[in-house]
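Task 17 of the worksheet. Students: predict the tertiary structure of the chain below and write it out as structure tokens. Keep your answer in the requested format; marks are given for formatting as well as content.
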Amino acid sequence: MKYRRLGKTELNVSVIGLGTWQFGGEWGKQFTQDEVDAILDKGQELGINLIDTAECYGDHLSEAFIGNYIGRRKREDWIIATKFGHHFHERFTRTDMYGAQDVQKQLDSSLKALQTDYIDLYQFHSGPDTAFDNDELWTMLDKQKQAGKIRHLGTSIGSNDNLHQTEASTKVHSEAIQVVYNRLDRTPEQRVFPSCERQDLGVLARVPLASGYLSGKYKPGAVFDKTDVRHRHDPENTRRKLEEVERIAREEVPEGVNMAEWALAWCLRHPAVSAVIPGCKNPAQVESNANAAKLVTE
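Model answer:
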């Protein structure tokens, strides 16, 4: 495994992290604690130290799985990033909750679910600019930092071209940006990444495999059943993406190299990117993801 500094946080994160949206059940699979334990054990075995989760991956369900695991391990072995701003109701249904008092309650609920006294990176979760620009929210969060409940603040931008929230990061003491970035969507390279580099913000690249399209497993015409999150995607857009994936596999991926591993390493080639946070359903996928670190040259 290789490690990089997460911007001005000075946290030393593994370049491959563990994304955990799937633990909330919206990938069409209900996880057990034993399955989560096996995934996290494999990650630790391979040198992964970064876990990214959120308050609304289930109603703190993903956090609770992680907390149960962490509670039986060494807390200091892991860098835990979670998020705030939504209340989960049912599959793909959430209510925005960005008010200072609401977020303070969310923070306490996350700490309880995660079975920890502190969160390493607490991220504003894909909210509108009007919610982000609330001084009362960031004042409350700064007080929680002073109280030791939060080590660092971050922003998970909903639009991967949200320059407003990225540019305002230093002002609100946000030290990291999470953004959708992959070989099929290079939008952040234009404005967000240059701003991150100017401010020394860490960057977590989410959806680095483009919802699995860059795994190399699917061909144009693939149909996803109703339990798969990709069933919600526009069919024509899916077809175009998979045709582009075929071209990339043919023209860009070196012969003999696993496409998913190549796609993760491709994200990490950009100097602004600190780590990628792919999801995984089992220990074998964790191992495949971790193998991408071998393709990273710096």
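Marker's comment: The two ends are 12 Å apart (CA to CA). The longest helix spans residues 235-251.
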